[in-house]
Design goal:
Layout: H1 2-36, E1 38-39, E2 47-48, H2 52-57, H3 61-92, H4 99-107, H5 114-125, H6 131-138, H7 155-180, H8 184-192, H9 197-208, H10 210-225, H11 229-234, H12 246-256, H13 260-292
Antiparallel strand pairs: 1-2
């Protein structure tokens, strides 16, 4: 009782947030896990089948393609987005006339609905009507007019570029917030000691943004594993599911094929993959810090 009397106000204040979290985050996860263990079409009574849906995943070629595509999007997006957003944040951190307007323009793609982003990029990447291939053909470089979307190999790379374009401003804004928290006195002291701008970047800016890099990488991992609308608009998983990612395959399995139980097993597998990748990154990140220290 003494513990509750001293912490009761905190519990009461946190209770609404805890209830929302349990209702809208944890409960859907528990329900998805339950249905993933059943054979259920969305109508009637679910039939418990144990782990058979999960066993089916590893023999399902479309699931393996979707997993591979998601992994490619993840790797390429991290490779483009993290360094690109960091460099952009460095540029936007300068004190110059009009930089405020540039920051707003930079962030604007992040507020566009993903389905609209996909529609915009269809007119750029589509092999038949897209701007890129039309331009290459007109200047006599039709041999470079590839199937940027809808083909067998390039679609996940194109999706990664679109994802990076849309998220660049959002991730750069987080980097920019971190940059503004670094004391100017550190740079002034480094200038007095004769350190170049490059050495200041390596020895001051990047180490002090260590937690920001970690946060942004985790955000990118979660963004890539839940990407849906952009892929749906660009290719709708075609042709023959060759451009599917985990979420689009889960959606088509659940609502098009009517295999609700199997679709939920794909959703749970996607959640587990997200946790594993995020956990692996955090483990490597922590180990790296210990080695450096």
């Amino acid at each position: 009782m003494r513990w509750f009397s001293s912490n009761g106000k905190k519990i009461v204040m946190l209770l609404p947030t805890i209830l929302v979290y349990l209702t809208y985050i944890m409960m859907p996860i528990v329900i998805a896990i339950y249905y993933s263990l059943t054979n259920f079409s969305g109508i009637g009574t679910p039939k418990y089948v144990g782990m058979s849906n999960y066993q089916r995943l590893f023999s399902d070629p479309i699931f393996l393609i979707a997993l591979k595509n998601t992994f490619i999007i993840l790797v390429v997006t991290i490779a483009i987005l993290i360094p690109g957003a960091f460099l952009l944040a460095l540029l936007l951190n300068k004190k110059a006339k009009g930089v405020g307007a540039l920051r707003a323009i930079n962030y604007s793609p992040s507020i566009i609905a993903p389905i609209m982003v996909g529609l915009i990029w269809v007119f750029i990447l589509d092999p038949k009507i897209g701007l890129i291939n039309s331009f290459l053909t007109k200047i006599g470089l039709s041999s470079l007019a590839f199937d940027w979307i809808g083909g067998e190999t390039l679609t996940p790379y194109s999706v990664a570029i679109v994802q990076s374009w849309q998220s660049l401003g959002y991730i750069a804004t987080i980097f920019l917030a971190g940059l503004t928290l670094i004391p100017e006195e550190l740079y002034e002291a480094a200038d007095i000691d004769g350190a170049s701008k490059f050495h200041q970047l390596i020895n001051i800016t990047i180490p002090l943004l260590n937690e920001t890099f970690k946060l942004n990488t985790i955000l990118v991992i979660t963004l890539c594993f839940k990407i849906f609308e952009t892929v749906l608009q660009l290719t709708n998983g075609g042709p023959n599911h060759l451009s599917d990612v985990l979420v689009t395959y889960m959606y088509s399995t659940t609502f098009t094929s009517g295999e609700y139980g199997y679709g939920m097993s794909i959703a749970v597998a996607s959640l587990i993959a997200t946790i594993l990748f995020a956990g692996a990154f955090l483990g490597i990140h922590t180990l790296g810090r210990r080695v450096n220290n």
